[in-house]
Amino acid sequence: MNIFLAVLQRDLKLALRRRREVANPLVFFIIVVSLFPLGVSPDRELLSEIAPGVIWVTALLASLMSMDAIFRSDYDDGSLEQLLLLPGSKVLLVLAKVTAHWISIGLPLIIIAPVMALLLYFPAHAIVSLMVTLLISTPILSLLGAVGVALTLSLRTGGILSSLLILPFYIPVLIFSTMAISAATSNLPVMGYYALLGAFLIMSLILVPFAVVAALKVSHN
Q1: CA atoms 88, 92, 98, 99: torsion sign
Q2: CB of 142 closer than 8 Å to CB of 102
Q3: Where are the domains of the chain?
Q4: Backbone torsions φ then ψ of 64, nearest 5 degrees
Q5: Which end of the chain is more exposed for a tag (fewer CB within 10 A), N or C?
Q6: Model's pTM, two decimal places?
């Protein structure tokens, strides 16, 4: 746990120093969602209907934009190699870096999303469902993204390739999240969707860190 807390604190401090890298995905999210009423239609009913998909697809793309930051800067300056040489669990190290990424990118997205949803005439009674799906699913995006980034660290075009590698694994999360929000807007039961997303999150927390550690070892060989 000392390793986890130390790496988490270090990465959060670095994120504060690199405000531009943190802000870019958030600005992208705000701009894209804001442009939909202009580019599609200002019709209230249409925007309300497509709002779940718009919010979630944009959040997914914003998350993809920031994935390379999980390991790239540490890999380039050699500090990732030093971190991997530290005694203790490498799994906790990976979890700390992914947690720092989620706090700096995923958490602000969750906070901003309800405001942007209201711009698309998203029903107020379904805002809670939107936030719950983002709260459960954005950590999954960060965990899966870490695998793609770890596999492509040694490649110059790693950012593009990692996005192509992990995008198919994002699809189930996207589908069940949008279905949960759509059910909430129609006043239908949503607990089943929450349970599935929660199962995805638990499986990701258990399995993905080991895959990331193995991928990092491969990238350094």
Answers
A1: negative
A2: yes
A3: 2-219
A4: -60, -40
A5: C
A6: 0.87
